[in-house]
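Q: For a teaching handout, I want to show students what a protein-ligand complex looks like in token form. Below are the inputs, and the small molecule is coenzyme A. Please produce the holo structure.
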Amino acid sequence: MSEIKVQFGDVNEKNYELLRTLNSVTFPVQYTLSFYNKVLTYNKYSRLAFYNDILVGAMTCRQEEKDGQQSLYILTIGVLDAYRKHKIGSQLMDELLKLVKQDPEIKFIYLHMQVNNEVGLQFYKRFGFEIAETIDNYYTDISPKACYILKKML
Ligand SMILES: CC(C)(COP(=O)(O)OP(=O)(O)OC[C@H]1O[C@@H](n2cnc3c(N)ncnc32)[C@H](O)[C@@H]1OP(=O)(O)O)[C@@H](O)C(=O)NCCC(=O)NCCS
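A: Here is the structure, written as tokens, with coenzyme A included.
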């Protein structure tokens, strides 16, 4: 399908309610208010994707130390259902890969994802992520409870 070119915006106090609405219709997990308060502090690697001033996608990511190395953890990447398969997720990921290149200290990117998320798995594999681990009882409120840890070395 044809690419829909998006414009990026930062997550801030004025627009994080929009991000909340987008995530609430995009993910099976309902994130808490404290999650969004924290996201406001993760704005270096979090972005909103707008098409004609409409929020159509978003990613939230934070830098963290893991296994003694600096890493980037993806909390969410989501695109509104009606706008999927138009390379909006890819533009968000390309932007993330561009941002992360600016910090050579960051050695890998990783995330948790429900094991039944086949579209998500295809998406991440396309960008060179691999299944590093499976955790059986990761989620408490959704089924299946198992998750993959997907990882991409930089
Ligand atoms: C995963 C998601 C972000 C992809 O966004 P998108 O804008 O539709 O993705 P793109 O159009 O950029 O697709 C890039 C690649 O992902 C894969 N992909 C995307 N949608 C797919 C589908 N329905 N079936 C199979 N592969 C798919 C393909 O490899 C695709 O490359 P191609 O277009 O050359 O075939 C979107 O489906 C989504 O928001 N899903 C719900 C939230 C979620 O599960 N996020 C991932 C966990 S954080």
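A: Two things your students might notice: The helical segments are 16-26, 33-39, 88-101, 118-126. The mean pLDDT is 96.
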